[in-house]
Prior knowledge:
This protein is α+β, with helices and mostly antiparallel strands.
Amino acid sequence: MPSSSITSSSNSYSLWLFCLFLCCSATHTRANEALLVPKQLSLSAINGTQQLSISWVGGTATAFDMLILRTELNETVFYKTISVPLISGRHQWTWTSAEPLECTSLSIKVRARDGQRASEWSNTQIHQGYDIPSNPKFQMLPQDKVVPVGASTTFCCIVGERELLRSMKLGSEVLKTTRLSRRTYSTVVVKRRPSNHSGNNIYCQDDRLNVTGSVIFAGYPPLSTDFVCETRNLTSAVCHWNGVDTYLYGRRATNYSINERKCLQNTQKEKQKNCTLDGWAGSWTLVAVNPLGQHNLTDSAELSHRVRPVKPDDLSAVVHAWNATILWVWEHSSYSSFPLVCEVAVTSRGYTTNRTFSGVGLQSVVLSDMHPNEEYTLQIRCGAQKNFWKWGDWSEEFSFKTRTTVPDAPEVWVWMNRDNTGQVVWKPLTQRQSHGRLKGYQVTFQSSEENLQHTVNFSPDTSTAPFNLSHMATLGSGKIQASVIAENEDGGSAPSAVLIPLRWTENEPIAVSRAVFLDGGFSLSWEREDNSTCDYVVEWYDASCRKDCPLDWIKVAAPNNFSSIESANFLPGVRYNISLYCCSSEPAQLLLRWQGYMQELVPSRPVYLSAEQRESDIVLSWEGIPLANRRGFLLGYNVYVSNDSHLTLIANLPDIETRKYEVKGYSKGSYKFTVKAYTSAGEDTGATASVMLEPQTDWLILEILTSLGITALFLVFVTFICYKKRKWVKRALYPDIPEPKLPGDWSRTQGPMDVKPSPHSMVHIVEKMLVVIPEEDEDEEMQRMEDEPADTDEPTSLRYYNQVVDERPIRPRFPDSSASSASSMDSARTDVTYTGVQTSGSSLAWSPNPLDSSEFSPSQAGQALSSEIRGGGGYRPQVQPRAPTEELFLTSPESSFEPQAVSSGGYKPQRSWHFDSPTEAGPSGGLAPSLGSPTSVASTQFLLPEGDECAEEKHQLSSSAASWFTNLLSTTKP
């Protein structure tokens, strides 16, 4: 038993090994069969393309490695594993080359593949190019290439043997090249725009400047739309479609065919294409083909549904005044039994109207509602009355003119002026209303009661007939009717009549409403008159017109109570008066009146402005704007003041009747004011006036006149008083001056009197002391004075002309001066010396003489001077009082004689002494540089007091004046 088991086991193992061997053997056999080397490799180029057809025999394998090389340079062009089924015992595959197959020789070989295993390569097959040595021709490929716009195309240039390529160009553009073989070069061209009619040139040049080239045509594949077929003669079909321009022309243009029947092209550039086919097929197929592709369209329909008639021919007309009959014929006799609908387009005076007529085999129509003496032009087209498809073609234009007849009756109205004059007006007949050449108008005025009339003829261009009611008295006192007849060559029109009022009556409505211009006209409405038996009349005219105004009017049927008046004569900025009349058996009655503007504008003229001052205010006044210049409804006035070319509004006056404005609160100065009128369209340019505001002068002038009057009355009063008191005034203000009387003979001829200082009368002021100079000193002093210059402040001899001689002896001033006085008298001379007067802040005072106090004292001098002054008689210079100073009161008691001197009479010399020069008048600490005051030989006082003496004198005069005024008012003496 064990041995049997071992034998069974070994037999099983042997059987397994045997089966494995058989499987491996079968698999190896199948692999060897699938990887057979492809044989019988053949090549075939497809004409007109760049495709190469490759076929071979290779067993049952379906996967192959394809290798394509450029033969000369051994460059791989294509290497790829492809799947090619076995068909009829051979494998066939088509390859498309980027370059034309003729550019260079190609080597092709194939091997079978099964996964990672591949067979041996087949034998190499070569497709010969034009660059082989046996073909030395210099050429470019491809020739006359048609390409789609935007596609890339490869061109190659084959140069001659032992030649090199210099350049390749498309037009003027230099192209980039690639070398394919020893003699072949290629380039890629992309045309992004269609070529022109003759294409675009591409060429190459070798190093010997030889040139060869080709032409490239870039366009589009065919495309057709709107393909439809119809009938024109009710038997054949005419097909239409729209083609798209492919930019390919000539033998490269698109070819069309319908139902495999070639159609002749009209013009390649025409978008609308058509083709005529005999008979009616009911279904059609359009095929469009060009070098870049093909496009198909189809259409189908019944004949009766696609009828489009031809145009009517040989038009004619039978013409009358108000209608015309139009006739025509058809080109095809089949139309005589076909139901048609025809459209007639009638044109007259630039306006076209369409009229439609229908009937079986329609060949004539009657046109009514035409106008006499009118030219018309018409065209006719027809279509199918049933199953209408499209209108047929228009006929040729046909023109004719209607006959003439009598004119239409003119439309008549009457206009009355305020002076019982007026005019009958009528609307001139248009050419259409005249119905022929117009000869004129005939106007007849007649009385309805007395059957009297007066006829006047007017030319065709007249539209008014004036009349005067005062001159119509010959027609009677009844109603006067005016009738107008228009006449042409065919006769007169029907008369149009209107009643004329016998006198002007003011029948105005209470209020005038405003009419609004909307949608090209004035819209009006009114209350309906129940008793109205005829039409309303709406009349309008320019509101600025006052006499014989040009009118326009329309008639409105009685049931209506609204109207919209429109006119091409309406102008912007013009105010129109619009009146509504109701006609009856009596002359027309005015019912309502409106005023309105087509368009309001700003006033065309400013107001006339004036400005004036009234008291402390400014009053602006202006005139109204004429109606013709308002150009709109005035809404008011704006008043401005001008501030540095800027207008400031100070008042708005909405009342248009206001013509004055008062400006208040302005101070004196110059102002400019502007007044602008405004409408709804805005303000006008404005009127400006200037005014100078001055202070009010009325009261000032009155005050001045009052002051002058009071002053004049006062002067009269003073003059009257002075006249009554003239003796007292003379005695008080102008007393008689006594003449000096001196002893001796003064009757001889007068001569100059030498005045020399007396030896005993020289008085010097030395440090505010009055010093008497002895005679011997006086002689020395006089000698020194004569030696010194004349402009010193020492005494100088002056010459006086003696006017009065006093016979009485002059009393000596001092006891020891008698001899000197007698000597002076005997010589009939008066010695006067000028002593320098020292100016100081204090008054002069008497001081003891340090030189000779025992011989002459101030008290003695005062007594002598007092006795001298008290003595009456001869020459006595006036002694002016001066205010005693504190020093004077302390040193000299002789001031008590001054009042006596003031009250004494005698000659009072005028005080008119001045300094020699202003510069010498100032204080110098010494004597004054001017001449001294004159002193008399019999006086110890200065004749012309200074300083405080003047002040004291003024005080005395002031007191004297006050006393005089008191005496004047209180005295009663004349």
